[in-house]
Amino acid sequence: MMIFGKRFNLTRALRSRPFTLLWIGQAISNVGDDVFAIALAWQVLLMTHSGLAMGQFSWRQPYLA
């Protein structure tokens, strides 16, 4: 990856404590978002007993928020 003509070095960026904390926090947040989406789809399946309803919800879920 080139930024302003210089090569971006991830290891150098991760030496910065604030950047590392931000990166880890964002990674945890992304995992949480995915787990939440799976839990919502699972709840739809438990409430409706319909794989079709779960599939439709999972397909439309990104557009609901």
Automatic annotation (TrEMBL):
It comes from the Bacteria. This is MFS transporter.
